[in-house]
Design a protein that fits this description.
The protein has 367 residues and is an alpha+beta fold. It is built from 10 helices and 18 strands. α1 runs antiparallel to α10. It is found in: Cell outer membrane.
Amino acid sequence: MRTATLNTLIRICAVAIVIIISGCAGQQMNMRSAASSEQVQEGGVAMVPITAQLVAGERPLQSLPPELASYQPQVYRIHPGDTILVTVWDHPELTTPAGNQQQAVTNGRMVQPDGSFFYPYAGKFKAAGMTIEELRSTLSSKLAQYLREPKVDVNVVGYGSRVALQGAFEDTTPQEVTTVPLTLAQAIGKARIDAEQADLSGLVLTRDNRNYKLDLDALNRNGDVAPDIYLKPGDHIFLPFNDRKEVYVIGEVLRPQAINFKTTDMSLTQALGRTGGLNPVTSKGSAVYVIRGIDEMKRTPATVYHLDAKSPVAFTLADRFSLQPGDVVWVGPAGVTRWNRFLSQLLPLSGLISNAAAAEYNIGRPD
């Protein structure tokens, strides 16, 4: 009786295992069929092998827009907000009305927002747009009506023109545009890039209501140094953060994760390297895939790039294959890994059989 009961329990559990396995297999087949039909409806998914021909193209060189490359700053012109220090020799009452002990800015006079400038005996006149020499000559002419051969000197001791900075900088304080020309490299150096969070390939310089996208990484690649870009008053510099510039590495790698990158691109080798590489125990070297265009599948088919990484030579191709933001890198499992996972799912059921058999044996034992 005990043996028949034990055999019955074993058969029931065995049938349950078969049903579960069959159900999983059937569900997987149904999912594949549904996926296949969806692919046909959406135009299919393009499978592209990563070959030497695919990665043979040279990376395009970054070039500056001609209007930025050709711009050369002219002689400094007075701007609204500038503070002008006028020195009239032998007339300290005009030169230092606040006293000799005060700073030059205290004795200076500001150009008003409308560009006008006032000075005693010279009156109020429009100074914005003048060069320093033109302003000196104008003041000398006006003061000559009251002073005999006035000797006038003019200096800008405070600057009202600025360049604005925003984004992944450590210091976004607006920077002055002075009589000494300011370059983009100097402004960035003073602002200090946040190296961990900045997207070096996405800097935007806004000038005269036009946006210029500049790839700092490409401009300074392979030992090249980007040419000087001179800034104008009113320029705006924006350096984006790289928090939305990610690739996702999943599957049989040592440390699956999302990876930010701050440069123009990231190679497949770099992405796999940052995750610790392929898992030597569970991964299948011939099953490395890059899935691209998932977000745009409603409009265009996604593309799946396949790398057969069984040979170390394949990583030469991977080093030339550039990833794009949003790419998903998936490393498939080896056959033995799938079998081990099946066993790990089977073992709890086999434990159930053992427990059932033990329970039946204990129930049937006489006290």
